Amino acid sequence: MRTIPVLIPRYPSNVNVSGASRPATRLLTMLEILEARGTVSGRELAQRLEVDPRTVRRYAVKLEELGIPVETSAVPTAATGCGRASSFRR
Predict the structure, then answer these.
(1) Who's near 69: CB < 8 A, 6+ residues apart?
(2) What local confidence, expressed as pLDDT, does residue 55 receive?
(3) What is the reported pLDDT for 58?
(4) How far is the C-alpha of 52 from the C-alpha of 90, rounded, in Å?
(5) What domains sit in the chain, N to C, each tagged with a CATH number?
């Protein structure tokens, strides 16, 4: 088996490289949440990932583009009964 060297950047201590600020990390976190919980509301995903609900929809599209099926459905919101909210399922 051949080993491939990987360069890992060293960031200065004042640079924030936490997962909350990186789209790829949030995308993988979304996948982990869907795998663990099954069906999750778009609002809950947005809160957990600390992003806008539209960003959650974009992440769902990105997962689909990567060949990872994500089901989305619109459900009535509890507040009005007539509005629509998104629900995601893996």
Answers:
(1) 90
(2) 92
(3) 92
(4) 20
(5) 38-89 (1.10.10.10)
